[in-house]
Amino acid sequence: MIHSLFLINSSGDIFLEKHWKSVVSRSVCDYFFEAQERATEAENVPPVIPTPHHYLLSVYRHKIFFVAVIQTEVPPLFVIEFLHRVVDTFQDYFGVCSEPVIKDNVVVVYEVLEEMLDNGFPLATESNILKELIKPPTILRTVVNTITGSTNVGDQLPTGQLSVVPWRRTGVKYTNNEAYFDVIEEIDAIIDKSGSTITAEIQGVIDACVKLTGMPDLTLSFMNPRLLDDVSFHPCVRFKRWESERTLSFIPADGSFRLLSYHVSAQNLVAIPVYVRHNISFRDSSSLGRFEITVGPKQTMGKTIEGVMVTSQMPKGVLNMSLTPSQGTHTFDPVTKMLSWDVGKINPQKLPSLKGTMSLQTGASKPDENPTINLQFKIQQLAISGLKVNRLDMYGEKYKPFKGIKYMTKAGKFQVRT
Amino acid sequence: MTDSKYFTTTKKGEIFELKAELNSDKKEKKKEAVKKVIASMTVGKDVSALFPDVVNCMQTDNLELKKLVYLYLMNYAKSQPDMAIMAVNTFVKDCEDPNPLIRALAVRTMGCIRVDKITEYLCEPLRKCLKDEDPYVRKTAAVCVAKLHDINAQLVEDQGFLDTLKDLISDSNPMVVANAVAALSEIAESHPSSNLLDLNPQSINKLLTALNECTEWGQIFILDCLANYTPKDDREAQSICERVTPRLSHANSAVVLSAVKVLMKFMEMLSKDLDYYGTLLKKLAPPLVTLLSAEPELQYVALRNINLIVQKRPEILKHEMKVFFVKYNDPIYVKLEKLDIMIRLASQANIAQVLAELKEYATEVDVDFVRKAVRAIGRCAIKVEQSAERCVSTLLDLIQTKVNYVVQEAIVVIKDIFRKYPNKYESVIATLCENLDSLDEPEARAAMIWIVGEYAERIDNADELLESFLEGFHDESTQVQLQLLTAIVKLFLKKPTETQELVQQVLSLATQDSDNPDLRDRGYIYWRLLSTDPVAAKEVVLAEKPLISEETDLIEPTLLDELICYIGTLASVYHKPPSAFVEGGRGVVHKSLPPRTASSESTESPETAPAGAPPGEQPDVIPTQGDLLGDLLNLDLGPPVSGPPLATTSVQMGAVDLLGGGLDSLIGGPNFVAPPAAAVPASLGAPIGSGLSDLFDLTSGVGTLSGSYVAPKAVWLPAMKAKGLEISGTFTRQVGSISMDLQLTNKALQVMTDFAIQFNRNSFGLAPAAPLQVHAPLSPNQTVEISLPLNTVGSVMKMEPLNNLQVAVKNNIDVFYFSTLYPLHILFVEDGKMDRQMFLATWKDIPNENEAQFQIRDCPLNAEAVSSKLQSSNIFTIAKRNVEGQDMLYQSLKLTNGIWVLAELRIQPGNPSFTVLQLSLKCRAPEVSQHVYQAYETILKN
């Protein structure tokens, strides 16, 4: 199981270590540093690194490497999932997960890590249980603790720890009872030069924020549940009900949680809401290249596309760009060769465009590769797959909760090749 | 106020200061001091000197302080074992605390104090906690057993904790069950022989119940444990699968992959005709696709596993090609894995899309990725024949880009394409030659030289080209040198007149000026060959090469089966069995997929296999191949449990190429000048010569032994049953013809005449090819020997047993019937040697259910002897490998009705009287396996 954990910042300092079994010397990280050196970018460090006696599994989040050390055959996904959980927990506790914040809260971090694993076996990873065991630091609590001498370590066994609904504690009370659900869909797509779709899929999630008193039992049903054939549920969802009735029946976790994630890959179901017209050309003879892109709406079901952002990694040979946008602002970083154009809203009557020239290294041959354009956008009040919630019912409690459903479509990894 | 204040130091010296604070009377000050100590510890500072002071703070009601002290203890107890004993009392006391949280904390911490001396004090508290009324304490105690086992295994066994732990599997609380399973699994890993997790249908049922209710991590432990179970029949396998499938929709990817492992393994037991089998296949695709939308690290592990799954059951993801398309900002390790899977999924249906993508990738920035993409185009050409032309033109386009590494990579793959489709795309050679100068990588240079040598007759200036390489011969890498040597010899054999000088030059460079033994030996072999027998040289060097296929980069089937059992583990990431990399080789148990067993027949042994058709009743024709799958006889179909096969096929290919790409016949024999005597010193000549003849012994041995093993004659028809006619006989096979050697003896008192013979329809259509010729009447007490030629074009009917032959013999007295069993090896045909690539492909293609395993005992033969013995009976050895000291022979044979049987024969050397040969047979018509095995045994033992 998981032996030790090292937190390493991007400059290669180990700023926290935690061991759940015997102490593993931090020199084991040398193998990691070697791999880090070989990989040009932090993102490219391989997630599994073998060393003579150990295996190092790492994830890179918030500019921190979380490196787990294991000694025996352990499912690597188990370790990586656990590391993600550690990141999520830190974020949950401290608002942000960063090196200074972790250093500032080092004792709490240490206590939390100790609660999360025992001898390398996961012990308590649900945030509501952890928060009962180790209270998250707040300014008020720090002050109170200093004055009264009380502690931020709970001395009662968390109620959720052993119940069949470990994600919810008993005795939750709210004055305003409310349940919000956000249906968020991200489109991952690759569009080729000519504008036809190579792949397109939708990664959808339903995030819930539930603040309800007591032990409510909720049922969420859809207008078109047939869309959802590839789903992953939060443990609270009763799988049998879904299998037989295609409704989500569950006792919700308290607070914010991801109820469901789903995947729609059938090509005909994935509408592509934007198009990009581009004309990027380098000429062999000239040291100037032409650059022109236009973004326009397509299949938007009458909604506005907002928050449009175009980024593109230009070839190394491009020295500078002189461009004029019809709207929004643009920047080009001549060092990283990154072009970004913050477009904003798309007005279908007047399509935003960015035109101009690129200056190339004189004498160098024209670049081999054409830049790929990355697109970000948002569409409010629309789930592009057409998924619609039919109704939300609550059983088990008497009060009448406030319910809200929001839809949103975003670009995920949306790439246009040129 | 943040914890960073704990890091500030003062002038007096940190440790001194902390010591004072720890001994302070004020609680608050103490706690702050301990926090400072912990903070120093987290960044790797040594604060062990404070041990006694910190332990003194342990006796407290303040839970936070207690926890902090415990944290410290765990880290430093090992370095201060004597001091650690001070803590024991507190643990024992805390284990009696009314608050379950404190009890659990105590039992949790004391297990982490890795000091031998104090472990025995912990046994009593641990025993109590294992039976605690609170499940939280019980589940913590379960893990503590694993900790204790790690420190002192003997103690744990002596104290009976393992049994208590096993009892916890039946605990009412699912979390306790999960932890008990996890602890037992960990202990079992260090004791592979112990039967700790004794799984039976009852305990499996308990685990499945707990599976639905425990945490995600517990589910992983339980699923991994389930995967080690072998259900007793297909019904049980199906019911477990049904209960595991909901886990595929879990949000935790590790749960999903563990569930996939269980399903992939148990699916092996399900019949493919089952509706459920199809349903299951469909259910597996979406969760695998979903894994690919997760974070890149998860994607990577998922992709490595999908790589295995795609090889084992390509049908699962065959329609999902697009999800493996590469996004330009994927991390490089994800890109490379995706590419690999794209090639595996490439088929005629999607090749156009794949090629378009690959071409796109070949223009990206990342060099490694571009190279692999170019290589992938070549692999597509080899895999999907219809696409070869498109691939070649794509490669040519890429060569036109003149990007150096693209060109080199393209040339390397074009060489492979030439090997796969000889005489088809040679028109592109001109284009390749244009780029000769830009090649600076050994692999590309070697590939180009190979092409020039291979097609020397079509390249006008081949000699010039090769000569240009020769100038810097000694600066080239070995790979290039070897290739250059072979290429020039080829050139010489093709154009002997102009290139004599060149070949002399290269031979002397290779033999005299090089200190590389491989190069020198190859040089000498060529030299000898050319000087002694130019015709043979031509036959050898310019021999037709076996075609290559895409199978070369597939994982060997036996290894693949083993790896499938390790889905989701490190083994699956490295594509190596754990035995190949687990520390110290401990805990290595070879896992194998479960054999397919039908519930109704599970108790029957092979001998009592259900009768197919009672003889003579149903005109049941033996179908050839595939159709037989329907009425499978109940053979033991366990797939082989193999050691880690190490050599890859590509290595073997290389070896073949060394010879196959080599020697040849020489037209201009007289032109050849024998090497100067000095070049081959007398002392060297002999060993080389004998070495060569050794080499050829292998093949010559084949020719001399013809005709398969003949059993001594046995009495088929006793005189008593046939009014005085006694018939004994045997079957022989010689140079392609089968005959029945009969000995007729007249034991009656009258003369016998008018003999005739007839066969009933039989499984392989054996029939007399000529009438029974008994020339003179058979007088009393006279014996006549007759050889009756047989053919296999008679009517076919499946017999029971398969090799049963019913014969009717008539003479002037009466008609007599008898039946006999013929040995199957008389049906093995002479052209039963399968091409190596075909063999690999077929082996993979035949489902594992059709594999049968046998043992041949008491056969003290080595691999050579076995191989030549079998060869004389038309069982051909295609490849031989040595794995972990065992010889593995891969063999093929073909029956007269066209059924191929593939065999893997494992020979364990050692004590000759104990040699056991392990025989695995794969055949589309599995019922012949039993008889083939008997044939093996007969041949080998005689």
TrEMBL record, chain A:
<dbReference type="InterPro" id="IPR050431">
    <property type="entry name" value="Adaptor_comp_med_subunit"/>
</dbReference>
<keyword id="KW-0653">Protein transport</keyword>
<dbReference type="InterPro" id="IPR018240">
    <property type="entry name" value="Clathrin_mu_CS"/>
</dbReference>
<dbReference type="GO" id="GO:1904115">
    <property type="term" value="C:axon cytoplasm"/>
</dbReference>
<dbReference type="Pfam" id="PF01217">
    <property type="entry name" value="Clat_adaptor_s"/>
</dbReference>
<dbReference type="GO" id="GO:0005794">
    <property type="term" value="C:Golgi apparatus"/>
</dbReference>
<feature type="domain" description="MHD">
    <location>
        <begin position="176"/>
        <end position="417"/>
    </location>
</feature>
<dbReference type="GO" id="GO:0006886">
    <property type="term" value="P:intracellular protein transport"/>
</dbReference>
<dbReference type="InterPro" id="IPR001392">
    <property type="entry name" value="Clathrin_mu"/>
</dbReference>
<protein>
    <recommendedName>
        <fullName>AP-3 complex subunit mu-2</fullName>
    </recommendedName>
</protein>
<dbReference type="GO" id="GO:0098793">
    <property type="term" value="C:presynapse"/>
</dbReference>
<dbReference type="GO" id="GO:0030659">
    <property type="term" value="C:cytoplasmic vesicle membrane"/>
</dbReference>
<keyword id="KW-0472">Membrane</keyword>
<dbReference type="Pfam" id="PF00928">
    <property type="entry name" value="Adap_comp_sub"/>
</dbReference>
<dbReference type="GO" id="GO:0048488">
    <property type="term" value="P:synaptic vesicle endocytosis"/>
</dbReference>
<dbReference type="GO" id="GO:0030131">
    <property type="term" value="C:clathrin adaptor complex"/>
</dbReference>
<dbReference type="InterPro" id="IPR011012">
    <property type="entry name" value="Longin-like_dom_sf"/>
</dbReference>
<keyword id="KW-0968">Cytoplasmic vesicle</keyword>
<dbReference type="GO" id="GO:0098982">
    <property type="term" value="C:GABA-ergic synapse"/>
</dbReference>
<keyword id="KW-0813">Transport</keyword>
<dbReference type="InterPro" id="IPR028565">
    <property type="entry name" value="MHD"/>
</dbReference>
<dbReference type="GO" id="GO:0098978">
    <property type="term" value="C:glutamatergic synapse"/>
</dbReference>
UniProtKB/TrEMBL annotation, chain B:
<dbReference type="GO" id="GO:0030276">
    <property type="term" value="F:clathrin binding"/>
</dbReference>
<dbReference type="Pfam" id="PF09066">
    <property type="entry name" value="B2-adapt-app_C"/>
</dbReference>
<feature type="domain" description="Clathrin adaptor alpha/beta/gamma-adaptin appendage Ig-like subdomain">
    <location>
        <begin position="709"/>
        <end position="819"/>
    </location>
</feature>
<keyword id="KW-0472">Membrane</keyword>
<dbReference type="InterPro" id="IPR002553">
    <property type="entry name" value="Clathrin/coatomer_adapt-like_N"/>
</dbReference>
<dbReference type="InterPro" id="IPR009028">
    <property type="entry name" value="Coatomer/calthrin_app_sub_C"/>
</dbReference>
<protein>
    <recommendedName>
        <fullName>AP complex subunit beta</fullName>
    </recommendedName>
</protein>
<comment type="similarity">
    <text>Belongs to the adaptor complexes large subunit family.</text>
</comment>
<dbReference type="Pfam" id="PF01602">
    <property type="entry name" value="Adaptin_N"/>
</dbReference>
<dbReference type="InterPro" id="IPR008152">
    <property type="entry name" value="Clathrin_a/b/g-adaptin_app_Ig"/>
</dbReference>
<dbReference type="GO" id="GO:0016192">
    <property type="term" value="P:vesicle-mediated transport"/>
</dbReference>
<dbReference type="GO" id="GO:0012505">
    <property type="term" value="C:endomembrane system"/>
</dbReference>
<dbReference type="GO" id="GO:0006886">
    <property type="term" value="P:intracellular protein transport"/>
</dbReference>
<dbReference type="GO" id="GO:0031410">
    <property type="term" value="C:cytoplasmic vesicle"/>
</dbReference>
<dbReference type="InterPro" id="IPR000225">
    <property type="entry name" value="Armadillo"/>
</dbReference>
<keyword id="KW-0813">Transport</keyword>
<keyword id="KW-0653">Protein transport</keyword>
<dbReference type="InterPro" id="IPR015151">
    <property type="entry name" value="B-adaptin_app_sub_C"/>
</dbReference>
<keyword id="KW-0007">Acetylation</keyword>
<dbReference type="InterPro" id="IPR011989">
    <property type="entry name" value="ARM-like"/>
</dbReference>
<dbReference type="InterPro" id="IPR012295">
    <property type="entry name" value="TBP_dom_sf"/>
</dbReference>
<feature type="domain" description="Beta-adaptin appendage C-terminal subdomain">
    <location>
        <begin position="828"/>
        <end position="941"/>
    </location>
</feature>
